[in-house]
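Study both lines:
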Amino acid sequence: MSIQKRVFIFTAVMAVLFLIIMPASAVILEEQYKGQISRLEPSKNTITMQVTSVYEGGEWVTYAKSSLKNNIVSGTINNPDIFSDLKQGNPVEAVILGGPGGEWIAIGRIGNVGSTTTPLTAAYGIPDRLISPYYRGYTIKTELTPNCAECEGTTCTAQSAKVVVERDGAVVEEKTMYPGETHVFGWNSDYQYIIQVKFNSGEASSDSCPAFEGIVGPQPISDFTVYDTQRSSVLVTNPVPTVTDTAETTAETTAPAQTQTAEETVSQTSEPIPKATQTGTNVGVVFLMAVFGVSMAVFKRRY
């Protein structure tokens, strides 16, 4: 085989590998935990959690058997209701973007830790990122619509959100919501427990916007406040529901807890992970140009 053919094949293979690998590396890692609130710092928009379980390999495993190095995890969150609703010791399920020190993109309050299903009674962030079901068999799905005039890289400001609430697999209600809007799903039903959703703000993928097709980068993040609450509590401003027909116990203790002071907690958490920027495309172009340059140099020397 001639040198020219070898160089051409090498260039083609590297280009294909680049196109395959680059999109996968653009999405920021998400990690799921269960545990309890350890510390709330409203002035810093920071919540620290003591982790007892980690979702790995498609199942929940205790912290002691997980790959997580430290069960004290801190992250930031900008939800407007969470700091007034939650308190130290509350059992929660949470999703963090970028690992310890990153951004909490979903935190759900667990209503009954004695249950194997750990039902959620409130959620802050992206409600359908949480793994556990909501109380009374509810599930929540969201689909955000981008404002294509306000995009940057892979994300756009969301102009609306389609919210679908189901119970035991059947649709209770669906509605298109706008930032700042609150709606009670299932109000016209006979259910004692219903779902109150507030759409605070959000991002949507820029894929459907003509000028941004094919761009790779971090996933869009949205923010909702959800209460799975009794019908009588809906009239109360921002109610944090309590499951009345099941005993609410203390947080899970399946893994040994590490005793740490507040100062130790702060020092052992990682620095916040900055939001990924869309640099992959530029690096890739430079890489392909370099490979092409080498190919041309070999070709010229040959002839």
